Amino acid sequence: MARARIEQSGPSVRLSDGAVARVVPSRFAGGWELDVDGTPQSHVDLDDPTHLHFEYVARMAAVVDRLRLPGQPLTAVHLGAGALTLPRYIEHTRPGSRQQVIELEPALIGLVREQLPLPRGAQIRVRIGDAREVAERLPAGLTGAADLVVSDVFAGARTPAHVTSVEYYGILARLLAPDGVLLVNVADGAGLAFARRQVATVAHVLEHVIVLAEVQTLKGRRFGNLVIAASSAPLPTEWLPRLMAAGPHPAKVAQGAEIEEFVRGARIATDADATDSPAPAASVFER
Q1: Could you give the CA distance from residue 148 to residue 79 in angstroms, rounded to a whole number?
Q2: Cys staple from 54: which of 2, 42, 67, 279, with CB 3.0 to 4.6 Å?
Q3: Among 94, 236, 256, which residue's Cα sits nearest to residue 179?
Q4: Can you give the pLDDT at residue 157?
Q5: Contact in structure between 105 and 21 (CB atoms under 8 Å)
Q6: Cβ contacts of residue 158 below 8 Å, gap of 6+?
Q7: First and final CA of the chain: distance in angstroms?
Q8: CA 247, 71, 210, 125: dihedral to nearest 10 degrees?
Q9: What is the SS3 assignment for 47?
């Protein structure tokens, strides 16, 4: 989810929940945007897959750039497809990467493939179904083999509760290689109660956690996206200045004692008490 509101018409499909997804020209950044009932879900520049307009996607890509050696192919699993922006980025910057994408809506995938075709030869396989259910039954060869797992699941403007719990993150952790990294996109507003629970929940599953966000978002002063990066292996300290420099600016990377303070008093989310992410105010999508 990102900040903008699209009013233009474009090729569209109706999703299973009645929402309408359409691909429209981006009015602010060139390229195209996937919009679902007024909520921009993805931005794609077919001519330049490294052009990442949405802030949180650029922060995710900054972490991806730190994985393995530059240009080295990755094994990646993406939960939530959107317009396949990050898989396109990985294919472009790390040719030969093996990528699995899980998406609930076949009509959305059909629309994206028709209007925003993938590069020829890209090893990006799309599996249709609920993110959590499909993740539990991925091929055994992926268990413990993923360099990267990305959780970016939204139903409209909110993340469903069943993909926010400690049980869910346990499923994802089992896919990771020993030094693999989990990336989670979290949207939250003032006070960051939901985000704090999410960071605490991920940290309960994977010991090493950092959070990347715009400064005012991380302070809980505005609604926005926070990116959680987590691993069972220590995240290299040399990442931090590079992640800060990569932006978008003003950037903030929280780690160590800052994470401990951030989650202080936050309850771990379980299947029994997990909640959807909060709904943003309509003004969030206005420019």
Answers
A1: 11
A2: 2
A3: 236
A4: 83
A5: yes
A6: 187, 276, 277, 278, 279
A7: 15
A8: 110
A9: coil
Spatial CA neighbour of 79 closest among 167, 173, 154: 154
pTM for the structure as a whole: 0.94
Within 8 A by CB and 6+ apart from 211, the residues are: 199, 218, 226, 227, 228, 229, 253, 254, 255, 259, 262
What average pLDDT does the segment 138-146 reach?
Answer: 97
Question: Across all residues in the chain, what is the average pLDDT?
Answer: 93
Token duo for residue 264: 């202080």
The three-state secondary structure class of 131 is helix
Show Cβ contacts of residue 54 under 8 Å, excluding neighbours closer than 6 positions. 2, 40, 42, 43, 85, 225
∠ CA 55-58-60, nearest 5°, is: 110
Q: Is 142 exposed, middle or buried (0-12, 13-18, 19+ CB in 10 A)?
A: middle
